[in-house]
């Protein structure tokens, strides 16, 4: 008896049809100057590195602040990681094919089209960008003027290089922002209590990680 193989599962259609806008943006990308194409191709990945550097800077800065401020700085990258996990779970439920493969009449994507099975909705990059931007703005008052435009640019770059629909990145931004906001609003109190205890730990490495807090600087100022 001959073995039969089951057909590969079909990808679902986009939840909202933004294929027309996708064609417009990718068409603009192909007509854009080479330097702009290269800039956004690089930024689509480099932005993740920059957000990581900002998280590290925020943690270092918060070591000299009160326990709640440091708790928020510690939670920020964790909230971003959680947002990424949520976006991956959604991808496993909504099997949306990449527009660089599915949209007829579109120009060739600037970036290599991900393989079939690496689904499109929502955009992981946009989710991480949205979570990072909101988390950093909540940690570091006044930083939102930098992080929010950077997140929008990263989301746009994913459409520009041709690997996501506009709706994918819009939902990714909103999802990341929501997860980060909820985590940072709900979880700091118990972590702040732990940090307060860690600041009196006999272990020097533990004390270095959480920093001296504001009390040490107040003591130094009156000496």
TrEMBL record:
Transmembrane segment boundaries: 42-62, 69-87, 128-153, 165-184
Top-level taxonomic group: Bacteria
Primary location recorded for the protein, binned into one broad class: membrane
Membrane topology (UniProt): Multi-pass membrane protein
Position of the signal peptide: none
Record bears the keyword Protein biosynthesis: no
Cross-referenced InterPro entries: PAP2/HPO (IPR000326), PAP2/HPO_sf (IPR036938)
UniProt GO cellular component terms: plasma membrane
Pfam families xref list: PAP2
SMART domains in the record: acidPPc
MF terms (GO), sorted A to Z: hydrolase activity
Record carries keyword Membrane: yes
Subcellular location: Cell membrane
Alphabetically ordered keywords of this record: Cell membrane, Hydrolase, Membrane, Transmembrane, Transmembrane helix
Record-annotated Phosphatidic acid phosphatase type 2/haloperoxidase domain positions: 70-184
Name of the protein: Phosphatase PAP2 family protein
Source species taxonomy: Bacteria, Bacillati, Actinomycetota, Actinomycetes, Kitasatosporales
């Amino acid at each position: 008896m001959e073995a039969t193989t089951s057909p590969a599962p079909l990808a679902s259609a986009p939840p909202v049809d933004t294929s027309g806008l996708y064609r417009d943006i990718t068409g603009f990308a192909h007509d854009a100057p080479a330097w702009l194409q290269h800039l956004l191709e690089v930024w689509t990945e480099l932005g993740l590195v920059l957000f990581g550097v900002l998280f590290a800077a925020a943690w270092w800065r918060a070591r000299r602040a009160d326990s709640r401020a440091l708790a928020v700085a510690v939670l920020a990258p964790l909230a971003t990681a959680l947002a990424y996990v949520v976006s991956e779970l959604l991808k496993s439920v909504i099997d949306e094919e990449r527009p660089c493969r599915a949209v007829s009449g579109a120009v060739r994507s600037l970036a290599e089209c991900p393989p079939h099975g690496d689904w499109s909705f929502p955009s992981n990059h946009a989710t991480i960008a949205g979570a990072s931007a909101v988390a950093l703005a909540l940690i570091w008052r006044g930083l939102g003027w930098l992080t929010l435009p950077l997140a929008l640019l990263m989301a746009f770059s994913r459409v520009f290089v041709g690997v996501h629909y506009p709706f994918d990145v819009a939902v990714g931004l909103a999802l990341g922002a929501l997860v980060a906001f909820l985590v940072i609003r709900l979880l700091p109190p118990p972590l702040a209590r732990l940090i307060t205890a860690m600041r009196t730990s006999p272990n020097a490495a533990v004390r270095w990680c959480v920093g001296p807090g504001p009390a040490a600087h107040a003591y130094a100022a009156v000496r």
